[in-house]
From TrEMBL, chain A:
Cellular localisation: Membrane
Keyword Transmembrane applies: yes
InterPro entries, A to Z: MFS, MFS_trans_sf
Keywords (A to Z) from UniProt: Membrane, Transmembrane, Transmembrane helix
Organismal lineage: Bacteria, Bacillati, Actinomycetota, Actinomycetes, Propionibacteriales
Keyword Membrane set for record: yes
Superkingdom of the source species: Bacteria
Protein name: MFS transporter
Chain ranges passing through the membrane: 42-63, 70-90, 96-118, 130-152, 158-175, 196-217, 223-242, 254-272, 278-297, 318-337, 425-442
Automatic annotation (TrEMBL), chain B:
Official protein name in the record: DUF305 domain-containing protein
Domain of life from the UniProt record: Bacteria
Organism: Nocardioides caricicola
Length: 447, 199
């Protein structure tokens, strides 16, 4: 049992932090299944991050005298129960409420497991394991959620968490000689600079992951599995960051600054996609993944370095990250929703232009325009299904090749409009990453 | 070097990614912009005869109407399609645009002579068999001397109730009936005027 205690606790930490973005790829399915609105379904994501961001520091401060074994076990059990509740939710309100409870359990898990991992592995390795598990969870959440949604259902995202978390409850209780609650006479203030940078970067990474999967699934109409495989570039590149840093041996400040720059560069790359092909997103995502791998763990280490109480400072990093995600969503959602609405006009004009000039007969143009008009009216807030409009229009044999080409051209115009609609949001995300860089390079006050 | 190695690599990576994306048109991946409606545009039609002529006339006409109203032809067409009732300005601009289109087609030589349209018109019209045979027997030169296509079209456009025409776009039979009535009247008026001028 002792051998699996550490890994089980680390996996649970990763699960909690993966939950921050794990439902991103499942949002379109949840929207349909629970018959809700875009604004409401966004709260499935926001509620978890908001509650976790708000309660984690008070939890660490208020429960610092509680035995971390009980804290961890109760948190894991609560997290597992809330996950099961999420899976069986039949309305959006219930799902959001369950996500809030999940975040409450998650806060206890993160606070409790830090002390438990330190007990299992010792201070240095325990903290490193806690941080690494968090980075892996954050980076792989959307990927895992997308695959599960495609293979089974959105509910499976929550079902799979239950047995893993359930196993971790005895693991938490089995930790021998858990560290006694800390009662240090000294109490350091939170590290403002790394926590602020973490918040900015989390907001920027929200742009990268949340907006990218929306673009892939809702915009370019790829399956959640295809989108999940595509966004797996981020965690893979994040793994490559550490060997690169070891090779070039930069200082931690340089590493963090470069990480911010790479995330900003990757987001600018996503804003300047030359085509609606998945392959074009790979290089910008690789930059973001490298940046993520260089920054998140270093910033967390910096925020916690030699600061006591340890768990309190660890919780500040979690709070900063998740409130950063909420702020990112709050800033980016109106920008991208507005741009998506604005994109309808140029898309409709481009479609009109191509239909007017298409080498098909006038009667076919009128009939097609009627079908396209109905399709556009039916598909408010969603990318229109042009294929259905073409299916409903009868073309003479001599016009069929031209009609097929026209359908491809119109789809290309829609993809152009949708991709263009995301540009400003990705650029805002890049701006947030650069704000993180500014915080890093801003001259320090001399002691 | 410890400070510069990683930043140099990062700058090179970002520059390479953005450079390739910009080289492949990353900054201009946008929907097709609408063309200037006042600029000359070549229009084509897949149909022959009256259908082809009507399509070319309408395509030129909406461009001209857009130019008059200061909007693109796409904006003008979408506005007509999406807002049930066209405004007086839109109806006036469309009529003026169609009349301008007749003049432009006459000027650039793309307006077919009336004789080229007679067979097509007779196919579409439900005339008595003897009368149809008699009209088909009239030599082309006589038809062209009696009827000028641009004159007939201009009269038909002046006569057409464009507001009703736009509301009939979805109903092919109603549309045909309305246009046929206007063109028949225009042919009669044109012939009467020709006879009057001869006398």
């Amino acid at each position: 049992m002792h051998r699996v205690v550490g890994p089980l606790l680390a996996v649970t930490v990763a699960l909690v932090l993966a939950d921050s973005a794990v439902v991103t790829l499942a949002l379109p399915d949840i929207l349909l299944h629970l018959d809700t609105t875009v604004a409401e379904v966004a709260w499935v994501l926001i509620s978890f991050n908001l509650v976790l961001g708000l309660v984690v520091v008070p939890t660490a401060v208020g429960l610092k005298r509680v035995d971390p074994r009980y804290l961890g076990a109760v948190g894991i059990a609560g997290f597992a129960a809330a996950s099961a509740w999420c899976a069986v939710a039949q309305s959006i309100e219930v799902l959001i409420a369950a996500r809030c409870l999940q975040a409450l359990g998650g806060a206890l898990v993160l606070v409790g497991c830090l002390e438990l991992l330190v007990s299992v592995y010792g201070e240095r390795r325990g903290i490193a394991t806690w941080i690494t598990a968090g980075v892996i969870g954050t980076a792989t959440g959307p990927f895992a959620g997308g695959l599960l949604t495609q293979a089974f259902s959105w509910q499976s995202i929550f079902y799979v968490q239950v047995p893993i978390a359930a196993l971790a409850v005895p693991a938490a209780l089995a930790v021998r000689a858990a560290m006694p609650p800390q009662t240090e006479p000294v109490r350091h203030n939170p590290a403002v600079r790394p926590n602020l940078t973490l918040a900015f970067l989390s907001a920027a990474l929200t742009a990268a992951l949340f907006l990218l999967v929306l673009l892939l699934v809702d915009g370019w109409q790829h399956s959640p599995a295809a989108a999940a495989i595509t966004v797996s570039v981020v965690p893979v590149a994040a793994l490559a960051a550490r060997p690169l840093a070891r090779l070039l041996t930069p200082t931690s400040e340089v590493e963090i600054g470069v990480g911010c720059f790479l995330i900003a560069g990757g987001l600018v790359g996503l804003a300047l996609l030359p085509d609606a092909e998945l392959a074009w997103t790979i290089a910008p995502q690789a930059l973001i993944g490298l940046g993520l791998g260089l920054t998140l763990d270093q910033l967390t280490v910096q925020a916690m370095h030699l600061r006591v109480p340890r768990v309190e400072h660890a919780s500040w990093t979690i709070g900063a990250r998740h409130l950063g995600v909420v702020i990112g969503l709050a800033i980016l959602t109106p920008v991208f929703v507005g741009d998506l609405q604005d994109a309808q006009v140029p898309a409709q004009e481009a479609i009109t232009s191509l239909v007017l000039d298409a080498p098909i007969t006038a009667q076919e143009k009128v009939a097609l325009a009627r079908s396209l008009g109905e399709e556009l009216a039916d598909q408010q807030e969603q990318v229109p299904n042009l294929h259905r409009a073409f299916d409903q229009t009868e073309f003479e044999p001599g016009s069929r090749a031209a009609a097929a080409q026209l359908e491809r051209d119109l789809s290309d115009q829609v993809e152009r409009a949708v991709t263009r609609a995301f540009r400003d949001s990705f650029l805002v995300g890049a701006g947030l990453a650069l704000l993180g860089l500014l915080v890093v390079v801003f001259p320090r006050r001399r002691a | 070097m410890r400070r510069l190695g990683l930043p140099i690599v990062a700058v090179l990576l970002v520059a390479a990614v953005l450079g390739v994306q910009l080289a492949y048109g990353g900054a201009s991946y946008e929907p097709l912009p609408s063309a200037d409606p006042c600029a000359e545009r070549t229009v084509d039609s897949q149909s022959d005869g009256i259908d082809g002529l009507t399509e070319r006339l309408v395509l030129h006409g909406v461009d001209n109407a857009g130019c008059i109203l200061g909007v693109s032809r796409e904006e003008f067409v979408l506005d007509l399609a999406q807002n049930g009732q066209p405004t007086d300005d839109q109806v006036d601009a469309l009529r003026e645009g169609l009349l301008q289109a007749v003049g432009e087609m006459e000027e650039d030589g793309t307006m077919p002579p009336a004789s080229e349209l007679v067979d097509d018109a007779l196919d579409q019209a439900e005339l008595d068999g003897w009368l149809e045979t008699l009209i088909r027997a009239i030599p082309d030169s006589a038809v062209d001397a009696a009827l000028k296509t641009d004159d007939v079209l201009a009269r038909a456009i002046e006569d057409l109730d464009l507001r009703e025409l736009l509301s009939n776009v979805d109903d092919q039979d109603q549309l045909n009936a309305q246009v046929e009535a206007a063109v028949t009247q225009a042919v009669k008026d044109s012939l009467i005027d020709r006879v009057r001028n001869l006398l």
